[in-house]
Here is the input.
Amino acid sequence: MTIAQLPNPTGRTCGTCSLCCKLVGIEALDKPPGKWCPHCKPGSGCTIYGSHPQECRDFSCLYLETAELPEVWKPSKSRIVMYLVDDGMRLIAHVDPGSPNAWREKPYYQALKTWAKSRLDRGRQLVVRIDNRIIAILPDRDVDLGVLESGDLVFIGKVMTPNGPSYEARKMPKETATASSSP
Ligand code: SF4
Ligand code: SF4
Here is the structure.
């Protein structure tokens, strides 16, 4: 977070964006998701840069990594931090709880739907996260799975229905999960 004050392969830098330092939880600092890190000075970055935890050093959002992502996706503008988890199987569009409807706005929502369809066709997923609330984005609808508690898992995938194959999303207890992963 704000790690990319150094140029990365796309040439993009964090600049004055610090949004991941608010949205993402950092275990090493006992920092919960959705709360500003006490070491962050929004607008100028990390006040302990250089001795910040490895989790922070390892983090990079998709805006920094993906040159094809238009400037409108810069997190400080979109209020959405995009990143991959589970070896790329799940794309998280992590929304600033201070702007909880940002993902519904143009052009974000239309893009999220397009990407969700493309990812699902390849057995991958896209979810919107607002604090610990998860919304699965499916081609034909969005499924609000509510707040995920510790141990809850999420299934998102293709199922057979009487009307043919369809995508489904559901939350389920860990012990019943067979083809899922935590957020
Ligand atoms: S959200 Fe992305 S652009 Fe913004 S500070 Fe974090 S890594 Fe940098
Ligand atoms: S330690 Fe620095 S880089 Fe890590 S979350 Fe806090 S402000 Fe951001």
Observations:
- Residues 79-183 form one domain.
- Residues 23 and 86 are 18 Å apart (CA to CA).
- DSSP finds five helices and nine strands in the chain.
- Residues 1-5, 178-183 have pLDDT under 50 and may be disordered.
